[in-house]
Write a structure and sequence with these properties.
By secondary structure, the protein is an alpha/beta fold. It contains ten helices and 13 strands. The protein has a seven-stranded mixed beta sheet with strand order 1-2-3-4-5-6-7. It has a six-stranded mixed beta sheet with strand order 8-9-10-11-12-13. Helix 8 crosses helix 10. It binds zinc ion. InterPro entries: Metallo-B-lactamas (IPR001279), RibonucZ/Hydroxyglut_hydro (IPR036866).
């Protein structure tokens, strides 16, 4: 389904006719768009997913390809806008397949596929059906340093999946992070695949960087203050649940007590607040073994 607004307007009547016998396909329609963020730098969107591309002298750097359909759509858009410009680099934000699939739709044999080493390891170990990174790094890597343009990649430790990095575009001063920083919305459901203390540590690290705009892999674009507020939410979630466990309270009681009401304006607050608490609780119990400690009272079965 390749619905860019311009082509959609041209071909709408044809698509309506062809879609009519299979109404199920209408539900699978994904809205896609491209928006400028700064000089030469764009955010592209496919449904609830966001990724970026940067146009430079010798080609185009694309961050996550997302999936085959999205990547094919983007490829068409890039060919239309920048005829003859190759995709010079693909950068995987982390190892998860809902962000890394579809790479072969965008890459040719000269495209460098870049990731942190741990992300590459997962893709190889799990036999993921996407392009294996050809360039890996451990802590930091700077791309395009020969032009008047830099992309600084940095690993901050565990936070979401494996090998999840931050991407800083200079001179645009735009920071791009996928999944472990989300603006305008709660972290996803019960934090499956996330490391909450690691998210807090990584987010503190990126707040020390100088950036004007933030672009996430989901939800809204924002500024440094938004990232600071997001960190405040993570800390309130973590500390509230931790203190409930230390006081010997059950998960049900902690869900009632940790109101997080300062953040009630965030999207999905009503549906996901308790799930976030449950995720934090499970990480502190199953990951940090808090209930195995002699100093922590065993919670009652129900309160
Ligand atoms: Zn994601």
């Amino acid at each position: 389904m390749q619905h860019h607004s311009a082509t959609w307007a041209l071909f709408a009547p044809v698509l309506v006719v062809s879609a009519a016998p299979t109404p199920a396909s209408a539900q699978e329609e994904v809205s896609r768009s491209i928006e400028p963020v700064a000089q030469d730098l764009y955010r592209w969107t496919s449904g609830s997913y966001r990724s970026m591309f940067l146009v430079h002298e010798d080609g185009i750097v694309v961050t996550d390809p997302l999936n085959a359909e999205a990547a094919r759509w983007l490829k068409g858009q890039l060919e239309e806008r920048y005829p003859g410009k190759p995709v010079s680099h693909l950068i995987y934000s982390h190892d998860h397949p809902d962000h890394t699939y579809g790479a072969s739709e965008l890459a040719d044999e000269d495209t460098l596929v870049v990731s942190q080493r741990l992300a590459r390891n997962t893709l190889v170990e799990t036999k993921a059906q996407t392009l294996v990174p050809t360039v890996v790094f451990d802590e930091r890597m700077t791309l395009l340093p020969d032009w008047d343009q830099e992309i600084r990649l940095r690993y901050h430790g565990s936070n979401n999946g494996r090998g999840s990095i931050s991407m800083m575009f200079r001179p645009q001063n735009v920071l791009h992070i996928v999944d472990w920083v989300v603006i305008g919305r709660l972290p996803y459901r019960n934090l499956k695949g996330y490391d909450l203390p690691g998210m807090i540590e990584s987010t503190r690290q990126v707040l020390e960087l100088d950036f004007d705009r933030f672009v996430g892999g989901h939800a809204e674009m924002g500024h440094k203050d938004d990232v600071r507020r997001y960190l405040g939410y993570l800390e309130a979630l973590h500390d509230g649940v931790r203190d409930g466990i230390l006081a010997g309270h059950s998960l049900d009681r902690i869900k009632r007590d940790v109101a997080l009401s300062d953040y009630s304006d965030l999207a999905h607050f009503e549906e996901w607040r308790e799930l976030n608490i449950e995720g934090a609780y499970n990480q502190l119990v199953d990951g940090a073994y808090m209930l195995m400690r002699p100093d922590v009272p065993k919670p009652p079965d129900s309160e």
